[in-house]
Amino acid sequence: GVFYNLNRLGVNCELVTEWVKDAVWEERNKTIEDQFYLTAKYYHKLWRVSQKVDIIITDSSILAGLFYGEPSQAFKDIVLEKWNEFDNTVYFLNRDDSFYTTTGRMQDLSAAKALDTRIKTCLDNLDVKYEEINTGSACEYIMRHLIGDEVKGKLK
Predict the structure, then answer these.
(1) Per-residue pLDDT at 130 exceeds 80
(2) Distance separating alpha carbons of residues 131 and 126, to the nearest angstrom
(3) How many Å apart are CA 39 and CA 61, to the nearest integer?
(4) Stronger pLDDT, 147 or 69, i.e. the higher one
(5) pLDDT tens digits for 101-122?
(6) 84 close to 61: Cβ distance less than 8 angstroms
(7) Are the C-beta atoms of 73 and 133 separated by less than 8 Å?
(8) Cβ contacts of residue 144 below 8 Å, gap of 6+?
(9) The dihedral of CA 110, 68, 116, 21: what is its sign?
(10) Has residue 150 got a pLDDT over 80?
(11) 68: which DSSP letter?
(12) Which tens digits make up the pLDDT trace of 55-102?
């Protein structure tokens, strides 16, 4: 993926996975309901490496706390304040239904697609710019966008 290839090319980067995934694997269902806590934990994972690397690759966003339930305005404000501390580039990967698995997830495919729609609506409402790309070409596209055409022929 993107992280692997950036590392291979010597780019100073880190992969920060979404914190909620740990809670899902540990079956901490009550914890998963607390979006403030999840967002703060995820923010901390990003913050702790943000001054040490040039690029952070992530499979989610601290904005994710706004995609579930009906967040208060105060929560939205703090999440956006923390979001704006980073230089964010957002790619929305269009789902390839043939590869979906429920292992380690809270949603089946139908619920995941509904969440996709909710995420896009939320991003649009927040005026967050994002690019939609297909998963099959995502790695090369993102690599070229991040570090230029010198990646051509060097990806694995």
Answers:
(1) yes
(2) 15
(3) 9
(4) 147
(5) 767 777 777 877 888 899 899 9
(6) no
(7) no
(8) 151, 152
(9) negative
(10) no
(11) S
(12) 999 988 899 889 887 889 999 999 999 999 999 999 998 887 777 776
Could you give the angle at the alpha carbon of 117 between the alpha carbons of 14 and 71, nearest 5°?
A: 75
Start-end of H helices in 33-85: 35-50, 73-83
Beta strands in the chain (DSSP E): 13-16, 55-58, 91-94, 131-134
For residue 58, list its beta bridge partners.
Answer: 16
The span from the first CA to the last CA of the chain, in angstroms, equals 8
> What does each C-alpha distance from 26 to 37, 119, 138 come to in angstroms?
16, 25, 30
For the entire predicted model, the pTM comes to 0.81
The pLDDT assigned to 153 comes to 56
- Residue owning tokens 């979001």: 83
> What is the token pair recorded at 57?
């690759």
In the block, tokens 């698995």 appear at: 101
